[in-house]
Write a structure and sequence with these properties.
Shape: globular
CATH class of the largest domain: Alpha Beta
Number of helices: 24
Oligomer: single chain
Distance between the termini: 33 Å
Structural class: alpha/beta
CATH superfamily of the largest domain: P-loop containing nucleotide triphosphate hydrolases
Largest sheet: 7 strands, parallel
Strand order of the largest sheet: 3-4-2-5-6-1-7
Strand content: 5-15%
Number of domains: 4
CATH architecture of the largest domain: 3-Layer(aba) Sandwich
CATH topology of the largest domain: Rossmann fold
Radius of gyration: 28 Å
Length: 786
């Protein structure tokens, strides 16, 4: 099937634009696509990638990673993609939203299958940097491996991503230098992104393909884009000035709004948007018209889903309505207003916002008004960017600002938009991030400067539960996605310091419980548990930061405990299985993956790692935990799965069976490459570049204490004989923790760092992900899950 036929079948439209055909059929995908708002960039990228994957002979990555600057766009994009796939009858292509909270689907268990992954820059770039926001630290290496190999990254409207632009370019350049399994290319799509913005130290000059630009053929009136590009709208300055209370702006909005039409008001901060909304409610008094809608990023997904649905309503629902919003609507959102009133913003944002006025050409004549700001109101933007935009808006006063007129204006003025690379991810930063162990103080590398920007509004994720006043919340299950609300770090710090705010909690992966959070521990991306009595949220207004509003908690339908260092959820299964039986299942699952994804030169290493990955479960500590959980297990067998849903405890703090497995293979097969032992140790994400004891381990040592100990394994611990299947047998022997020592040829850390240097971080993490996928799939099947 050719691409035009494929496109029409998916979308129901008569023809794709010529540039969409060029994108799909080009020998090499362009790194930069310049297209105006409303030109169908999402369909271009998604359907172009899908057609290349299914119907062309062009090498195409099997995963599409679609990165958006705003949360409000995620569900909209997901729904569009699912509709296209349904029209194409391609139920075999998974569509997954990567957000905070419990994952909706275990996409990572099927690395050999095509998938479309959609998320914001915060969630996707943090995962690509091995520090996934609002995600278990033990899952970080899986996403790092799968999102940096065999993927096409598409960045939609990257001019809104601040430091994310620099990081996206650096990651593309570093993947090229450090090598990946399968291609991992990037495409940036925007009407205003300048090519020079991608000119970072490791990306510069590596991909010289020209940008894909729209031509006169794309603006042929038969396609409909001509009507959007020439839609009538004029610019004027708003007489009101922005203020904290929002009164002046609200009065002007009420005056400018025309009955029977839709007005869109865009503020640069959530607080100013909420203030204008509140004042509009007062001005409207008890009347139901005009309808009012508040949209910003500080809502939980449950409320946001309903708001987004209202935002997309057309026809009567959009008549006589005023929408008050923040930057969340300035790109990609398919809404059109008769009147647009926006605060001053950087020029790229102004262009995007103007695109929400008379977007379709059916709201003629469109009216655009801009509100000036003083220097104290510039945040979250730089004053220099606002000064530049102000100068251009003054030149355009009273003139038309259709997309074509704005493009002609920019060309006539001859200006290009500057971009400062404030924080550039370097190779050494990436290699540091490969190590997922916290430092000796329990802290992790803060990646916020690479993900979005260095402004104080980088977010934490919070959720509410019913916790007694004197309770600790220690046993609360992990949050589901619909519970989480994004809150700026600075605002949450202020909230914690209020007199009426009770204790709040963060998950301690070492002790396996929710612990009280100290304000000094606040950093972007962490997940925080709040008692419902804390308040801070309104279903109508979103995050408020006060102690007034009563919260309606949203506990998960399937409660699951967050994972701890000593946790082993995959070993808890309703079906009891021996080590031999489970090992056979993992090896079979690995073969399914390798039939499609044979990693060049490493398939046998993966096979050997799968065969030996659970040898350490023969350890007395693990078997004791099995029988404590399920006393009915036969005493003459070595068990890998408990046969019950009861919690596992091992009697040794932080015990990790995979460390025992890795030590066993180092002793039994010294001739094998170190990669095999490394993959065995990493198959739960808890032992990677180093072997070290953790806090509290020394509290319960036998007398006399062992010479060395780490993760519940003691030097010279006996490991009983265990049959691993296919002729592989571990014969009883004492475990040797000598690799724990630093220096010398046996040093685990030394050998692991050599392996990292040899394979590079992307390839090594990818191999980790494949073994973990096989193990996870086997465990799910054994537990009776599809």
């Amino acid at each position: 099937m050719n691409f035009p036929a494929f496109f029409c079948l998916a979308t129901g439209k008569p023809d794709p634009f010529p540039y969409q055909v060029t994108f799909a059929e080009s020998d090499e995908l362009p790194e930069l696509l310049h297209a105006p708002t409303g030109a169908g960039k999402t369909a271009t990228a998604v359907l172009g990638w899908l057609w290349r994957l299914l119907h062309s002979k062009k090498p195409t990555p099997r995963r599409l990673v679609y990165c958006l600057p705003m949360r409000v766009l995620v569900e909209q994009t997901r729904d569009e993609v699912r509709n296209w796939l349904a029209a194409l009858e391609r139920t075999d292509i998974g569509v997954h939203v990567l957000m905070g909270g419990a994952e909706l689907a275990d996409w990572h268990l099927h690395p050999e299958k095509p998938a479309i992954l959609i998320g914001t820059q915060d969630m996707l770039l943090s995962r690509a940097l091995n520090r996934g926001y609002a995600e278990s630290r033990f899952h970080w290496p899986i996403d790092f491996g799968l999102l940096n190999n065999d993927c096409l990254w598409v960045f939609d409207e990257p001019q809104l991503m601040a430091n994310g632009v620099s990081t996206s370019a650096q990651l593309a350049g570093l993947r090229h230098s450090l090598k990946t399994h399968g291609a991992c290319s990037s495409v940036w799509m925007s009407a205003t992104l300048e090519r020079g913005w991608l000119d970072t130290v490791d990306y510069r000059g590596k991909f010289p393909a020209p940008a894909l630009e729209l031509t006169e053929a794309d603006y042929d009136p038969k396609y409909g884009l001509h009507k959007k590009m020439t839609a009538d709208k004029t610019l004027a300055k708003c007489e009101a000035t922005a203020s904290k209370d929002g009164k002046a702006v609200a009065k002007e909005v009420f005056k400018l709004h025309q009955a029977g039409t839709q007005t869109l008001v865009i503020a640069n901060t959530v607080d100013r948007a909420k203030a204008v909304f509140a004042e509009l409610e007062k001005l409207r008094k008890k009347s139901e018209s005009p309808k009012l809608l508040l949209i910003h990023s500080r809502f939980r997904p449950r409320e946001r889903q309903g708001l987004n649905k209202q935002l997309q309503d057309k026809g009567d629902a959009a008549k006589d309505r005023i929408i008050v919003a923040t930057q969340v609507v300035e790109a990609g959102v398919d809404i059109s207003s008769h009147t647009l009133i926006t605060e001053l913003a950087p020029w790229a944002s102004i262009v995007q916002r103007i695109g929400r006025c008379n977007r379709t050409g059916d709201d003629t004549p469109g009216r655009v008004f801009w509100i000036d700001l003083d220097d104290k109101q510039s945040l979250p933007y730089d004053e220099a960017d606002l000064n530049f935009a102000r100068a251009q808006l003054k030149k355009l006063d009273g003139r038309g600002v259709s997309p074509k007129q704005l493009a002609d204006f920019k060309s006539a003025e001859g200006f290009s938009l500057p971009f400062e690379h404030k924080h550039v991810l370097r190779r050494r930063d990436l290699l540091d991030l490969f190590d997922t162990s916290p430092d000796l103080s329990g802290n992790d590398i803060d990646i916020s400067r690479f993900v979005r920007s260095d402004d104080p509004d980088t977010d934490v994720q919070v959720f509410w539960r019913e916790i007694p006043k004197n309770g600790s919340g220690a046993d609360e299950p992990r949050p589901a996605r619909e519970e989480l609300c994004s809150v700026p770090v600075g605002q949450f710090r202020d909230f914690m310091q209020k007199d009426k705010t009770p204790d709040v909690y963060i998950w301690d992966h070492l002790d396996g419980k929710w612990q009280r959070l100290d304000a000094k521990q606040l950093r972007p991306g962490i997940v925080i548990l709040l008692p419902e009595s804390a308040g801070g949220y309104s279903e109508k207004l979103g995050w408020t930061g006060d102690n007034i509003h009563k919260i309606d908690p949203l506990p998960p339908k399937e409660p699951k405990q967050p994972e701890a260092t000593a946790g082993d959820p995959n070993s808890i299964s309703p079906q009891a299985l021996t080590v031999t039986e489970h090992t056979a299942n993992v090896c079979a699952m690995l073969e399914e993956i390798l039939k499609v994804l044979p990693p060049s030169g490493h398939a046998d290493a993966l096979r050997n790692a799968a065969r030996w990955h659970d040898a350490g479960k023969a350890h007395a500590a693990f078997q004791g935990g099995m029988r404590k959980s399920n006393p009915a297990l036969a005493a003459d067998k070595l068990w890998a799965k408990s046969g019950t849903n009861g919690k596992l405890t091992y009697g040794r703090k932080h015990f990790r069976h995979e460390l025992a497995s890795a030590l066993a293979v180092l002793h039994a097969r010294p001739e094998w490459e170190f990669l095999i032992a490394y993959l065995i140790a990493t198959h739960h994400g808890k032992v990677r570049l180093s072997i070290r004891s953790l806090p509290g381990e020394a509290d319960k040592l036998p007398d006399p204490p062992p010479e060395m100990f780490a993760l519940g394994v003691f030097h010279k611990d006996p490991l009983p004989t265990v049959d691993l299947g296919d002729g592989e047998v571990w014969s009883e022997h004492a475990l040797d923790l000598a690799p724990m020592r630093l220096g010398g040829p046996a040093s685990w850390t030394g050998r692991a760092l050599n392996l990292l240097s040899e394979l590079g971080p992307f390839k090594l993490a990818y191999l980790e992900s494949l073994l973990r996928a096989a193990d996870g799939r086997a465990s799910r099947k054994e537990a009776g899950h599809a």
